[in-house]
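Recall from the previous chapter that SMILES is a line notation for molecules. Here it describes pyridoxal-5'-phosphate.
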Amino acid sequence: MPAGAHVEIDLALVEALTKRETANLDEKHARSLAYREEAKAYLPGGVSSSWQAWPPHPIYISRGLGSHVWDIDGNEYVDYHNGYGVMVMGHAHPKIVEAVQRRVELGTHFAQPTEDALIVAENLAERYRLPYWRFGNSGTEATLDAVRIMRALTGRDMIVKIEGTYHGHHDSLMVSVFPSKEDAGPREHPASVPQTKGLPRAFVDLVVSVPFNDAEAADRVFAEHEGQIAGMIVEPAMTNCGLVLPDPGYLQRLKEICHSHGALLAFDEVKTGFTVAWGGAVEAFGVVPDLIALAKSLGAGIPCGAIGGTEEAMSMIIAGELDQVGTFNGNPLTMAAAKVNLTEVITKDAYARLDEINAILARCEDVIERYRLPASMKRLAAKGSIDWRSTPIHEYRDLWEIEDGVPQLAWLWQLNRGVFKSPGSKWESWTTSIAMSDEDATRYVDNFEELAAEITT
Ligand SMILES: Cc1ncc(COP(=O)(O)O)c(C=O)c1O
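With both inputs in hand, we obtain:
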């Protein structure tokens, strides 16, 4: 084999191994399988969110502690799923447990502000270099607020987003999330594809999507819709189709393009916030947008969301001209957890541990090289992914070249060997936690090497 060439993966072998691993998984999950049948009677699909029903079956979890989770069959796993990237602080961290218990005894909801909210907002202002913050209860609410603010400030309705990014399930952005090759249209002018049934066509038509890492495509779209685009929302590093890093200068260029067309730039840091650096993507890539949507790790496992902005971006909320509202906004339980999380748990020092874990996971790169796998790896603090493609994913459409079978097998393989990952690893990056031990990281690498050996023989 010439130097640098990759092995050809035998897809028939992958299929056979997938059958074997699925049967092994079923055997270990008798209780989960039975429970799904019971749950289906009242919960559609037996789950509380459609994406929890990943094949072969949902796995019902009973508890988590530190870097580990246990399912209702009693199987133990190192948690790389971390609740879709939330639990970077680890499960049941003693300081979070104490803060939540203390707050529960003092009452958990008044729909009035509590003192903790100010401390949380101050901490966010320091991390993300934006002065003003408001709270909500999910990433969906945070990106909804970002879109509404951009529309209110500009008096325009259209929004630009990146093809292949997910920003939550509200009508304004659930467009071109995972479009199929058949529906997506030409790369120069991607079609606006509703991700789910039930989206009004009028909302879908207000969204224009562009490929990630292509500033000129964004510039072109702004020119084609001159004076109509309120702003652009972007995940500064894509996290829902592997981890896709921005090219140097890309984010800064987007900011310049938005501003030169009288529009705003919003970062969706729901997943990158608190995971790629202490100050999220703002710190990692050195660009401060007009608005930032946060959620996930902020609340240490309690439902949360936040929208931050420059003084100008938040001016209409400050002036009382735009309603950013919600019964549970700034909920005392969320704020108590977030305060301790930000000030005592995921502090600057904690990020050194994420880098140590990341360095152990980097051994997967050696495995890729040694076994000449058609795969590549990307890593940034708590986030990382292995793409089953020899050149790293640079934009969403690159994913179409990946066979579904291999990432599904890789996911099952890890699951059967004590590593819990987000389902659909073709689309998902992993999230590590500060609670992980060196052994937890080594387990991932060892499993990966075992898989590499099996599929290349
Ligand atoms: C990048 C991104 N933005 C927004 C959201 C929506 O967050 P939530 O599920 O809390 O509404 C998600 C959810 O996974 C996400 O990955």
